[in-house]
Amino acid sequence: MQILVLPGDGIGPEITAATRQVLEAASKRFALGLDFIEDVAGHESLRQYGTTVRPDLVDKARHADGIILGPTATADFKDPAHGEINPSMFFRKRFDLFANVRPARTYPGLPARLGAFDLVVVRENTEGFYADRNMEVGSGEMLVTADVAVSLRRITRACCNRIARVAFELAARRRQHVTIVHKANVLKLGDGLFLEECHAVAQASPGITVDDIIVDAMMAHVVRAPQRFDVIVTTNMFGDILSDLTAELSGSLGLGGSLNAGTQHAMAQAAHGSAPDIAGTDSANPFSLILSGAQLLAWLGRRRQVKKLEIAAGAIDRAVEAAIAAGEVTRDLGGKLGTRETGAMLAARIAS
Ligand code: ATP
Q1: CB-ligand 1 contact for 329 (6 Å cutoff)
Q2: What mean pLDDT comes out for the span 81-110?
Q3: Where exactly are the structural domains of the chain?
Q4: Per residue in 177-217, pLDDT tens?
């Protein structure tokens, strides 16, 4: 089974190396037969090939069973005509990775300011308020005059329906509750459509309870009592913002894992950015991408009905839990380990 590894920018190469080490240990222990092929995307690719994503990389990604993309310096890539393509957006769009699944939970051994919680944000990934992906041709943002900008937000029934189905299917494997987050009081048509479609899927999902909350009120609810939430489904930008909040509430942005999944492809990505402020210092927390890698294995396991992939994913999750409980963590979580030591320590826990 081939996994394409793209280290990315900033802390990307460091946390990707640690993730690969952990997945290699899991592959050996559970006889998964994972074969890692490494390539470049982002600044390194721009430097070597004049573009952040080469056309032949797309073919490699298409033929791989899964992709691991390290954080990339999204804000630096402004001019696609000169090869400055945002790799994260590119793969999400090209492979229709419509479901961005971002778990956030507390861990025994870490201070939980708001009490223990365990939730998942399911964020629509292919339309909404994202100018770089909601148009077939051109951008969803326009400068009408030098002083007037217009940003389009696209919401389609089909995309609402498929993201809602991912959320309700996930809730069925968890605590059977879905919260729909929206702004249908103001965005009556767009979020009205989203809300309507989510409730339609709820009707067809017996045994799953549902509620809906307006996005601004949701911020208060999450910081007041995050334990009341199980699966949260929302549109693209609300999900992006909400999931950074839930990751940080769980202890650190460095715990924020995520999977971008479509029907044929999936890509593991940390929920955070490339953190240039700590790049190259061996201090980044690799748990985010390692947990994302575990999500990718679990996704592959469910899709291909290969139980040992799901078992390996569970073993990685438990190794992270045990490491946190033992205080074997990076600085952001109050520990002393470097990124490299963290990868080696987790790999050793999985191997034993
Ligand atoms: P980008 O421009 O790529 O989005 P950024 O620095 O603006 O990068 P993030 O990368 O999300 O945004 O980082 C926000 C803050 O969280 C930074 O101070 C960063 O150092 C910290 N941070 C992010 N990821 C990690 C991590 N894995 N381990 C430790 N600290 C992290």
Answers
A1: no
A2: 95
A3: 1-97+257-352, 112-250
A4: 999 999 999 999 999 999 999 999 999 999 999 999 999 99
Tell whether domain 1-97+257-352 is in CATH 3.40.718.10.
yes
Q: Taking the mean position of all CA atoms in its chain, how far away is CA 147? A: 35
Give yes or no: 183 in active site.
yes
Ligand 1 proximity of 253 Cβ (cutoff 6 Å): yes
- Residue in 132, 212, 240, 317 annotated catalytic: 240
Q: Give the Å distance between the CA of 74 and the centre of ligand 1.
A: 12
pLDDT in tens, 39-70: 999 999 999 999 999 999 999 999 999 999 99
Catalytic residue check, 244: yes
The 3-class SS string of 86-107 reads: CHHHHHHHHCCCCEEEEEEECC
Q: pTM to 2 decimals?
A: 0.94
Name every residue whose Cβ is closer than 8 Å to that of residue 240 and which is 6 or more positions away in sequence: 123
Fold of 112-250: Isopropylmalate Dehydrogenase (3.40.718)
C-alpha dihedral sign at 31, 32, 36, 42: negative
Half-sphere exposure of 35 toward its Cβ, with a 13 Å CA cutoff? 5
In this structure, the strands spanning 266-270 and 257-261 are: antiparallel
The yes-or-no answer to whether 1-97+257-352 and 112-250 have a common fold is yes
Query: Whole-angstrom Cα distance, residue 339 to residue 344?
Result: 9
Distance 241 CA to ligand 1 centre (A): 14
Decide: 278 in ligand 1 pocket, CB within 6 A.
yes
